[in-house]
Design a protein that fits this description.
heterotrimer; A alpha/beta; B alpha/beta; C alpha/beta; B: alpha/beta; Hypothetical Protein Ychn, Chain: A; five-stranded parallel β-sheet; 5 strands; C: alpha/beta
């Protein structure tokens, strides 16, 4: 491992940063939704201040009632419900993205906080680290 | 915050979404195919120009050059090189890539 | 400043790896450090020693290896994403190592900035 990272570890104990994971892509057409979720689950072990936001087609990741048998891929939608058990509870969706797709909170598999674009913008601006897929 | 957009505005909605979620005083850097949005006559030109009231828009010069677009940059868009890209990342408190 | 980088796409198919490399090289030239580059999704494909691109164009994999050799940049390939795509220890180019997603989170915590390059 790089010496630089070793040096940093000594000062890194107890640092809590605001991490935001931005999901803007629909599930299954690409792997970003699934592999993005895997990062979030790992992040839980680091005791950081984690938010997940769903914007544009990312809101489709949270739709309930999916059945992936026909396309023969793993159904990972229930994993979003497991996030709470990992203390990942801050899930936000953008209202404009939901409206543009004819979706309401009732269509979603987990409880979320709906933000308008300005609120989402402010939340993003507060973050220390933003990881996008 | 520095918002980095890399896809053409006519291919993807990432520029549109980024501009919906910038706060006043932020900056938007267009790289790779997104640089087309910073050119005269582009579909995104009007959006870029109206965004300039609240945020500074930058475009990555080498990407403009590679696409033959350097002489068509919209007034008010600042062209930076990779060194300028690095400065933008360090000068803003955080960055977000809109992919 | 310490600037961490995430590369989410493979070589040649997308410009992401090129832009990330040029960004990293410039950051180092300006006196910043790039302690880690984390390769995720198809980005893991930047790590294989098996590529044979045309001689008259840039060698994306070798450039990363050289950056690691010259400046100590830690090139980390995600183990889960790598396994999905057939990246194993025996085919890694110099300077790359396989490790877990925690290395990405750690880079976010310990660097001053984390920049993502993707599709």
């Amino acid at each position: 491992m790089s010496d630089m990272m070793d040096d940093m570890e000594e000062g890194g104990e107890g640092v809590v940063k605001k991490f935001m994971f931005v999901n803007r892509k629909a599930p299954h057409g690409t792997i970003y939704a699934l592999e993005g979720l895997e990062v979030v689950l790992i992040s839980a072990a680091f005791d950081q201040d984690v938010s997940m936001v769903f914007v544009d087609d990312g809101v489709y990741e949270l739709i309930k009632g999916v059945n992936t048998k026909g396309i023969e891929v793993k159904d990972f939608s229930k994993t979003y419900r497991a996030l709470e058990g990992y203390d990942i509870e801050k899930l936000y969706v953008e209202k404009a993205s939901m409206d543009a797709r004819g979706l309401t909170e009732d269509d979603l598999i987990v409880d979320v906080t709906v933000l308008d674009s300005a609120e989402m913008a402010n939340l993003m601006a507060e973050q220390d680290v933003v990881i996008s897929y | 915050m520095l918002h980095i957009v890399n896809k053409s505005a006519t291919e993807r909605n990432s520029l549109e979404s980024a501009l919906r979620m910038v706060t006043k005083g932020s900056a938007v850097l267009l790289i790779e195919d997104a640089v087309y949005a910073a050119t005269q006559g582009s579909v995104a030109a009007a959006k870029i120009q109206s965004a300039m009231a609240d945020v500074q828009i930058y475009a990555l010069g080498p990407d403009l050059d590679a696409r033959g677009m350097s002489s068509r940059v919209l007034d008010g868009v600042k062209v930076v090189d990779y060194s300028g890209f690095v400065d933008l990342v360090t000068e803003h408190n955080s960055c977000q890539s809109w992919l | 400043m310490k600037i961490g980088i995430m590369v989410s796409e493979g070589p040649y198919n997308h410009q992401a790896s090129d832009t990330a490399y040029l960004f990293a090289r410039n950051a180092i030239e300006k006196g910043h450090s790039v302690p880690r580059v984390f390769f995720y999704h198809d980005g893991v494909n930047n790590s294989t020693k098996l590529t044979q691109p045309p001689q008259d164009d840039r060698n994306v994999v070798n450039r990363w290896s050289k950056l690691a050799e010259d400046h100590g940049v830690d090139l980390v390939v995600c183990v889960a994403a790598g396994m999905r795509r057939g990246i194993t220890d025996d085919i890694l180019a110099p300077g790359f190592r396989i490790s877990g997603l925690g290395q990405l989170v750690e880079a976010g915590i310990q660097c001053d900035r984390l920049v993502t390059f993707g599709d």
